[in-house]
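Subject: sequence -> structure tokens, single chain

Hey, anyone have a minute? Need the predicted structure for the following. Not urgent.
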Amino acid sequence: MPDLLLLCALASVALTDFVYCAAPALVGGTNAESGGGAKLACELIVSVAFAAAAFAPGKLIRYPNRRLIGVTTLVGATIIVLAELLEKATGSHWSAGLQQIGIRGAVDHPVELAVNGVAATVLLVSALAFLRRAQRGDTQSALLAGASFLLAGARLQYLAVPAVATNWITPREGLRLAAYAMLLGSAYWEYARARRAEALAAISSERDRIARDLHDGLAQDLACIAAQGQRLGTELKPDHPLMVAARNALATSRGVIADLSASTAPTTEAALRLVANDLHHRHGVEIEVRVEMTTALEGSNDLNLVDREHIVRIAREAIVNAALHGRARRVDVVLSGSGGEDLVMRITDDGWGITDAHGSGMGLRTMRARAAALGGQLNAHSGPAGGTQLELTVP
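Reply:
Had a minute. Here:
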């Protein structure tokens, strides 16, 4: 929904400025112009469209209602036409008497003053709404906030200097040009984000395919080998290399399948629970997962696929270390944060605690490398009552 409303806002800006600013200059007009009824209606539509995009909830429209889009377009066109007809019917041509090139110090018609004032106010409110999103790390909203501020400044400048020759360059044109640059930057940012999302979706789809292939092929063959090996247990003994290799290969393949399935899980919490369930069956350790993510922007409070993978892999490595090296029987995983706060994951266990050898091991180095890839920091130490406490913090 915000994307559709933003599309309406950008289309309104482009059409309004082309019809009332660019086109007159292209045909060589030199007369001073003030706002006509249709122009004022267009300016108001632009400001309202930006406000709608700024305050719209992040609702996904799977099947856009074409009839609604058509009706909305028709209503906007009707407003413009009626505004122009009303001006001509009442005979109040607001730009009359401005045939000489010059600058009026103030708008002399109360309707024009009111509409431009309302348009500037709505744009300023929209800018503040976009700025609030930008404070939570949304670069696109920062660009839209800047564009809204600049367009509002152009409206305010027009109130002070409402009528100029169409071939003049004023601060209003400079403000609009800067606003267009920010809108272009916002569009490019959205395009780049969509391309990254497509790439991540392709990677996720490929991982899902690999997981299915492993499950339907290699994992079933290894399960058969392990089952047949149990029948030979009296001859080969459970610690025979063939038995050990079969069990390890089956466990490894199931772990890979769990990791691949976690990468395609609908949420980070679901991904962590998939991995926790796999490790519970493999190591017999009790694992509790809690995710306390508060509502973030656009109605989404989850991580992107890349960050989720790092989080899940860090959690897996920490749980495996607790089960194998710390002999833990219980592990607690708590993930908390929101769009405007630090992301924190705490993993605690009731094992023997971390030692110097474990602190410099490959597992902890790998987890710290993943934490650095997230732009965060990972700390691990023994708890006051025993066990290991691991904390990942991402600003």
